[in-house]
Amino acid sequence: MTSARVPLGPAAALAFRPLRGRTGLPAVAWIAVLSAAVSVVGAPAHVAGAADVVLGLTTATVLLTRAGRTVVPSGWRWFAAAAVVTGAASAGVPLITGVPASAVLGGGLGHLLTVVALLRLRERSPGGGRAQQVTAAALFVVASLLAVHVVLRPIAGVGSSAALAVAVHVVPVVVALSTAAALVFLGGVAPGRQRVGLLLVGVQSALAGTGVSSVLAWGLDSPELGAWVRPVMGLAAVLLCTACHLDVPRGPAGDPRLWPVGAVGALLPHATALVAGTLFLLQSSVTGAVDRFDLVLAITGLLLVLVHQVVTWRAQHRLTAELLSSQAYFRTLVRSSADPVVILDDRLRVTFASKAVTDLLGHAPDDVLGRCLDEVVHRDDTGHLTDALRGTAPGGVPAVRTARVRHADGSWRLLQATVRDLRDDPDVGAFVLYCRDVTGSGADAASEPALVELALTDPVTGLPNRAALVRRLAALRLEARGRPRALALLGVPGLAGRAPEDAAVALRALTARLVRLLRTEDWLARTKDGDFAVLAHGSIADAEVLAARLVATAGSDLAPSAGVTALPDDLDPGEALRHADLARRAAGPGQVHRYDDAVRQQRDRREALRADLAGALDRGELRLVFQPVVDLVLQRTVTVEALLRWRHPVYGEVSPAEFVPLAEESALITELGRWVLHEACTTVAALPGTELAVAVNVSARQLHGGSLGADVLAALDASGLPSRRLFLELTESMLLDDDAVIEELEALRQLGIRIAVDDFGTGWSSLAYLVGLPVDTLKMDRQFLAGVEHDQQRQALCRAVLHLGASLGLPVVVEGVEGDAEASLLRDMGHRYLQGFALSRPMEAAQLAAGGWPTGLPTAAVAPSPR
């Protein structure tokens, strides 16, 4: 017996001596090494048992000492209890049974206590992901049971020990539950505790391995197999104490819905299921027999894999919808802000610019991406703005600086920028500038005189600009009352499509020609991109003659037109400009029009419609009609296009061509688009026994406003219409050069919604660009059909569009088919999908619900058309 005191005395002294350092890890590590040495040298059972007790007590002491400083102290106290129970049971049970490996029976109780400890350690988190964690844990438990049972079952019949039989059936359950508890903890752990979660998975995996090895060593009577159990137990103790040391509060845990599931927690259940299935198949093929219990576990595991995949898919679908809604919300906030938001990287290059930059500086947001700060800021202001950026403390008080920035037309704008250094923010990592235009506001007195002069001069032509014209008009009201004078407004839209450099050259040349036509007292200004204004002294008839000369001088290639209005003393400058602009709009290309009662009435009608349109939806004046798209092969209607109609209480039926542009001038078009989506989906979803799809037109403002994805998902959810039965129709120009729009449409397509290009072939498309667009259908524009029956070139164009769609794998819908001859000819060409009056006029919702949709060409068009 004296030999037992030789290894025990130093170990016991080390265990109960005051622990060195703050963690106690050195003590646990040394005792783990001694415990491993006891196992390796083959010490007697009572010595090995004493080593187990000392290791358990030391581990428990360290855990209890550290527990008060951890995130959840009660969980670590349960781990301390588990360590004591495991050590005591590991020492006591072998003394009773006489079999060293039978310590696993006592250790099983300690393993179960670790399950309680892990569940107590897990912080409660309201939010998603629970269903995924539950199914993953259930899959892991079943797979572990199958794998361990397949390994241990063959030894159940060895010998006649009832205790061994119990171990064979109990150990798999304990191993599966304890390791699954660690996975559940890892799946819901906060970002600051992920290392703790991984260590605890390692602890439970080590304990599981020792349990299985102990049973195998017991059943196969193999001391060599059980020799490594204590070294692994010692390693588990060290890992457990390390995890306790790391589990300290680290600040706010963040949004629980964003807690990540570690790769280990996500992959281990599936890896275990793969291993278990492989072992099951190998055993079945080798023995030629299938155990019923193993078969039940295998089938249950397969079902759980399926359930877990379904739960994961639903969670991803919900997350996609939430992400679309969140992106749309914040994108709308940024885009709708009147003040531009600009983001700069460490090198002070622009990485993001909101759409308000266009209104402020005339540049499209994509045009300024990648440009350095000194390329757009006045050289005299670059230094102090750069110093402000470099000197701003991360997360500190925002700096406010003023600088001159070049407009796209060459003029300078005085901008005030609030600078935030968010480089330490992982979600931003850049400088953020919130800008506003303070030109002429007195924000920088030193710069204002020069800026005022610049602000009143057009930088391209050197003429007075619109601001100067307004000042001149106001001054004339006071200088020369009673003298006849008029205002002529010349528009040259033909410059709009030219490159900026070419447009500038043409503008300067045109200005020189216009100046030569002016009389001594006439005054010329440039009001905006393609407009010039002339203050003409004399009667309005004189002004009309002058305007006609200006139009003739501009040349037909620029499609000029002019409007003229008299300037009575009581007409303010803003109203005068509006009168001249309305007259110019009423004039066709190459024409001059005087502002008169007809123009006024047209304006009044337009203003009345604009005012009434705002409340038309609430008053129930708006409705949808549905025009069928017919599949000539299947001889049935496959889609209906939802078209908006307005029955005005005074003007009667108002053409969409008249009221839709009015809605597009404001955010009203987005509200109308949202209503159309909801009504169209609801109407078609209510049709019984049909797979009819519905197509809805999307406006540019709704598409670029950032809320389209959320609006579409809301309409589908409210109506119950399957996403595959919804088409969104967009014009070609809306899809060009806007990566954000293309990404949003691609996300909608991933949900099953289909995208159609409306008015295809109107001049924007190119085959190379179409290949990369998220498009499912092409709708050929009506302009191809004008005189198609007798025009061989137009027939060739129709065939070319059909072949283009076929080469891209896209169906082509021909819209605007109005005559029977057109319909028959298009059918003979091979066009399958037709839409237009020749097949059906738009149907009211009640007619649509009653059925009777067109199934093919009208009778008059059925006969083959002459070639």
TrEMBL record:
Record Pfam families: EAL, PAS_4
Keyword Membrane among record annotations: yes
Domain PAS positions: 326-396
Organism annotation: Geodermatophilus sabuli
Transmembrane feature ranges: 31-64, 76-97, 103-122, 134-156, 162-186, 198-219, 258-283, 295-313
Keyword presence, Membrane: yes
Protein name: PAS domain S-box-containing protein
Cross-referenced SMART domains: EAL, GGDEF, PAS
Domain of life of the native organism: Bacteria
EAL domain: residues covered: 606-856
GGDEF domain: residues covered: 483-597
